[in-house]
Amino acid sequence: MADLIGQQIGNYTITRLLGEGGFASVYLGQHVRIAAQQAAIKHLKTHVTGADIQLFQHEAELIATLAHPHIVRLLDFEVKDGDPFLIMEYAPNGSLRQHHPRGQRVPLSTILSYLRQLAEALSYAHSQKLVHRDIKPENMLVGRRGELLLSDFGIAIIAQSTYATQYVGGTAAYMAPEQFRGHATPLSDQYSLAIVVYEWLCGEPPFTQGDFIQLGYQHNYSAPPPLSAKEPTVPPEVEQVVMKALEKDPQARFPSVQAFVEALTAVTQPAFSGTGTLLLAYKEHNNWLHSVAWSPDGTRIASASADGTVQLWEAETGKAQHFFYGHREAVWSVAWSPDGTAIVSGASDKTMQVWEVTTGRRQLLLTRNADVQGVCWSPDSTRVAGGAADGTIQIYDVRQSRLLHTLKGHSAGVWSVAWSQDGFRLASASDDKTVQVWHAVTGQQLLVLRGHSKAVIAVAWSPDGTRLASASDDKTVRLWHAITGQLLATYTGHSDEVWSVAWSPDGTHLASASRDKTVHIWDSTGTRTRYIYRAHASEVNAVAWSPDGTRLASAAWDNSVHIWQVSTR
Asked: What is the CATH number of the domain that holds 533?
């Protein structure tokens, strides 16, 4: 088919070419009746007739059964004049190849964020007896909410079923040794994923020179060049894990993709040393501390107290810059705008107030029907959200002083609200023992997370937006998958109610504050306590990481905020 622009495939009209690969061209399709619905239409560069059509349909139906938040959905398929087409979910934010061109090194923390999502997708597919066969950055797409979507699942095997028999499926630079011999297993996907990790760490795959046969020989018989020779900053433990996943013998690799990712995560998590050096104790409040927030540049702290004040002070010296006296009763929560220009606070006087950081002037006064117990900012600093004791969450446009949404789903008071980094989702924690996730633009309820046996006091998003942490009066912190709602882990290290939880900026650790007078630092698997801070004389209400991840601020009922060093070795 020469020119496909304007042609209708299924319920979609082809509007433009998105890209071309070795065995397929990808077009953007517009639904003929639903204006807001688009799809990616993949035209396989082959011709099928007779039995080949039945085989193509069988494989397409198999792929269509995959339903996972990190896998691109197959919406439909069609054979038109012998040309096979696959109609797939459209991911508008490009691929990881576009985000990280070849030659560009990717931070290890970002790699781990990607791998967690990819491992979930692959583990699910492998449980369904499907092997991807073509893992590479081009097939890792970025969805509308910033999540990763693994694309072209099984496309290689469809191509194999419709191409000449010598086609073995995959892209040579990323193929496992056994794939060149026409045999692919879940361990082949692990090898290909390790090739991608190798490339992200040093800028290029281990084997890049030669044609298909030459690359096949290298994958089968040549040792990958040491990562440390190409990028000396790669830790030896990381290199060891990657090289194990690149073993020629599939049985010498990790038993699964998930085991590979867990091993890599384990060697990248730092060990915390010392006793948590106390750098500063701020004691200007004359009543309990409820909340604490860092400025985006890490130089200042905003603290909220039952004394009715919000105080802004220097994190290094403790020197006060502004005291905000606008509230008439206890202040429950404070948050710093991501652009660093404003602070929002919520209090028992049933108000949310927005303050200018430079002048200390109150910019906005928002009146509610109940105590405001949790506040947060949108990532673009244009909106604030407040959770109240009446069980509602309200979202305001700060620039226009306008109420955008009132979210009603909780059956009891809301203690905490948190905005995801992509700006599309809002999470809330409540006395009704649930965490709820909302679409921050439409106000639609997306998830209700149940599992805590008592009130949920705090909720926090992982930096990559894939997980949620919730802290509860049931003495636990729970980790959830932010899209499916699956419970991932439960941390049980505290001996009393847990009132605050925060992710480290790199997403590898969490800090939780408790009525047991301690702050715990623990790994993001929820299985290992790394350090316990015991310097507070009373219950600890709040904890927050500095933006660079080297310090923690903890606020307690002893009327103090502690700034302490987080040292690693």
From this structure: 2.130.10.10
